[in-house]
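Protocol step 6 of 9: fold each sequence in the batch and record its structure tokens directly after the sequence line. For illustration, a two-sequence batch is reproduced in full.

Sequence one:
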Amino acid sequence: MTTKPYGLFCPTSKACDILMPRWIIQILGELWGGSTRFNEIRRGLPGISPTLLTKWLKELQENGILQRVEDQATGNIDYLRTEKAAELDSILAGLAKWAQHHIKAEIALADRDADLLMWNVRRQIDLDELPAKQNVMRLNFSDVTSPASTYWLITKPGETVELCASDPGFDVDLYIETEVAVMTSFYLARRSFESAVVDEKFFMSGDQRFIKTFQRWLKFSMHSHADDIAQINDLVLTS
């Protein structure tokens, strides 16, 4: 282990020796969300450098939390969680539940990175609730802090949802106009989706099938089901 230990013998401190260095919990969260490739993990953690990510992935392997698997035919490398990592699921879920309940929405929604939001949203699309064809959704955000403000989600039956930040050139089935702060707020259940629509902060146009079934084909965050989630004050969304 390359990190400096706390020098305390209690089990909690020993766990912190391994889990508390910056980015470790976030890397585990990306793996928990389904990322297995180096570039996928880095896409979900835009603030980490490739060098630092390589270092922590190696250390997590040495601690038996990850397994590095290389496909000899293609050369592709996947980082898979071990049983030791799976035992952390309840701990990560508990931390998220605590944050949803105790951290003020004003703080939780302060970051307005559309790229990061869309990277997570594309995981939550239920293909079984969409027409069995290629579907294209265009989302435009007016308050971004990331380089891109417009994104396209492309779905096909049985395939991974594709996220694009440049126009793929396909006909669009659904257009969405909103703000990152607004979509993040109902995605994390910090406010209701219905209130965002009523307050004219979330606009949809296009194929009515997509509009009427929006809350069926887009499953909100896995952390949106926590009890007593701290709610947003609408004044925050206009600041």
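Sequence two, same batch, same settings:
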Amino acid sequence: MSAELKSQLVAEAEAIGFDLCRVCRPDAVPQVPAGLSGFLEAGHHGQMGWLAERTHWRSDPATLWPEARSVIMLGESYTPKHDPCDVHGMTDRGAISVYAQNRDYHDIVKKRLKRLARWLIAQTGDVTQVKVFVDTAPVPEKPLGQAAGLGWQGKHTNLVSRDLGSWFFIGSVFTTVDLPVDAAEQDHCGRCRACLDACPTDAFPAPNQIDARRCISYLTIEHHGPVDEALRPLMGNRIYGCDDCLAACPWNKFAVEASEMRYHARDDLTAPKLAELAALDDAAFRTFFSGSPIKRIGRNRFVRNVLYAIGNSGDMALAPQAERLMQDADETVSDAARWALKRLSDVANGQA
């Protein structure tokens, strides 16, 4: 019965919209505690203090919910239609990470996970219990994804799939149902280091290790306050997230274009104009990014990022935007505006 149920589960997951469905045990990631401990001790988590909380759950999924017998790991492609690196050559435009160029994936994936969980309960009876997670709980989803066979953690620490490349979301359904497990995926990176070499800020101390304090995704999304001035020029025009290490992966030749239309980029977010973004006040920011994950970081942090991009643009036509924001009520924004003006001036005078 369990093998038949597993086969039906995979088919149902595909019908719901997932591209991958695999199963592992909650205790299938014994390597996580040492890796997490080393990451935290090195301070590589930066301001993400929540990573140092509830480490007993984050280190061992079996303790998160002891009654769980199986973890169903799901993958869903968000592969873009366009080359996300093209925007880096457009100095008056901002680069937004592919996953954030339309609707918030948390909402879409979680609804699908709940639908699959309800289906499982319908097949097995009300005694079945389930919990669904998508990047919002102390669950080591990437190690579990490798243990279940979705893919392997590449040298950039993200999951890579032989079927989907680097562009896919992951989510999980923990359940009390005992399901047959899949074989863990093996590492297929070999000697390739394309992802490491592509990082603009050298955020990888070694293969399979990341120092979030130098990662542009962390700096533009999680980091509060001013960014280290030494890192600002390296951010280029990346104003929310960074896809460089993902885009560099050779396994993307196997990536399949996202079938979910809400993952495809909005026309106004593939290469938005920095001047227009810098002009957003709080109300306009909330309206423009309604339904987007970008809305969660707030107007001030976002405009800070935009000002760093303006400073890196070398385009004096953008100077009035920075000059106007020098008097912004938010201290971090005004600091970014002063830096942007100085950098534009230095570039214009050949001093940068």
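Proceed to step 7 once all outputs are recorded. Observation for sequence two: The first strand starts at residue 20 and ends at 24.
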